[in-house]
Specification:
Blueprint: H1 18-32, H2 37-51, H3 60-69, E1 73-75, E2 82-84, H4 86-101, E3 113-118, E4 122-129, H5 141-152, E5 165-172, E6 175-182, H6 195-212, E7 217-223, E8 227-230, H7 247-259, E9 265-272, E10 278-281, E11 284-287, H8 294-309, E12 312-318, H9 326-336, E13 339-342, H10 348-359
Parallel strand pairs: 6-7, 6-9, 9-12, 12-13
Antiparallel strand pairs: 1-2, 3-5, 4-5, 7-8, 10-11
């Protein structure tokens, strides 16, 4: 006899499907495995043994199949290697943005407006009388026709210059930002992972600018013994190396990038946890990891002063509370007339985003 099987109803978390629940875990693990999909899936299998977040009806194998079907991962038919797709890279950036913005205080966020009105992108709700030189696109015809009806009546209706009203648009500031990320070996020393929070901030900031401020520019500079730029799509795969900290090379590259940018507002965000310990002289490297070497620090201070002359503001985010470095950071900040924050790893995102938004309210001339 055919009947029905009843079981205990267990509501899904927040109404999410099994796939969505596991996808969140998978995306988080990708940040820690530097974009290695196979390692992230191995970690998921191990975690599932302990915490049992899969179900008898939906296992890790089902999740992997659905990842392939929905275009989150690709499998090489020859080697069998599994890689993440551009869709997943964008998903990691978006989730990083949501994660960091979720920690910020609610309020009026994201304004690029200045105190000046003119021809711009943001429509101003207020109107004003027409003046010589105003363009036709700015005329508010609804308000203008209403004025004409009031002044002349319907029977003798005529639209005159005195009836015209202009609806202005606010000018949006545009900013060019270079985000410098320290990838020296000290970013993973003493069992503390500092590179993952830095990557999350970079991915969130890039997603914010691409989606909300498309006219802004963001360049990512990483620095160890040398400095080089990376694409936004490469952020999930970023790893530290056996490097010293060549802050000078990072600043020189950032300045070179910003010189070519046409935006009047330029800034550098530098995320680091250690002191500058390296300098390149020709083809050789000058290194000193013991204390603050004046030969290296003086070069850093000179570059900070040069940035001040070029109206490039430097904001330093120190993700360490070592009092030994505070004197150097203070001198570096004073040379640039910039800012410095001593942020713990869990506060880094809030510090960066708050400062980024505040910077939009300034205009550098």
């Amino acid at each position: 006899m055919k009947g029905f099987h009843f079981s205990k109803f267990v509501p899904s978390e927040g109404g999410k499907s099994d796939f969505d629940r596991l996808l969140e875990i998978f995306m988080q693990l990708l940040s820690y495995t530097n974009g290695d999909a196979e390692e992230a899936l191995r970690w998921m299998s191990e975690l599932d043994k302990e915490y049992q977040f899969s179900t008898p009806q939906y296992g890790i194998g089902d999740f992997i199949d659905e990842l392939k079907q929905k275009g989150y991962i690709d499998e090489d038919n020859r080697s069998g290697q599994i890689n993440i797709t551009p869709k997943t890279e964008q998903g990691i950036r978006k989730r990083s943005l949501d994660e960091i913005f979720g920690k910020l205080k609610k309020g009026k966020k994201g304004n690029h407006t200045t105190f000046k009105s003119g021809q711009g992108d943001e429509v101003n709700p207020e109107t004003r009388p027409f003046q010589f030189g105003d363009v036709l696109e700015q005329i508010d015809f609804v308000s203008s026709i209403r004025n004409a009806q009031i002044n002349t009546g319907i029977e003798q209706f005529s639209l005159r210059e005195d009836d015209l009203e202009i609806r202005e648009t606010d000018f949006k500031t545009q900013t060019s930002t270079v985000l410098m990320i320290d990838i020296s070996h000290s970013m993973i020393l003493y069992g503390e992972d500092r590179i993952t929070p830095a990557k999350k901030v970079a991915m969130a900031l890039s997603e914010l600018i691409k989606t909300k401020y498309p006219k802004d520019t963001l360049d990512i500079v990483v620095f160890g013994n040398d400095a080089w730029t990376i694409e936004i799509k490469d952020l999930p795969y970023l790893q530290v190396g056996p490097y010293h900290t060549n802050t000078v090379a990072g600043l020189e590259l950032a300045m070179d990038i910003l010189r070519r940018r046409k935006n009047p507002n330029k800034q550098i965000f530098m995320i680091t946890d250690g002191k500058p310990t390296c300098l390149k002289e020709g083809k050789k490297y000058y290194k000193n990891a013991f204390g603050l070497d004046r030969k290296i620090t003086n070069k850093c201070l000179n570059l900070a002063a040069q940035c001040k002359k070029l109206k490039i503001l430097i904001t330093t985010f120190m993700i360490t509370s070592d009092p030994y470095l505070q004197s150097f950071v203070r001198a570096f900040t004073e040379s640039n007339n910039g800012r410095a924050f001593y942020a713990s790893l869990d506060q880094l995102g809030s510090f960066v985003f708050d400062d980024f938004e505040k910077g939009k309210k300034r205009r550098v001339f």
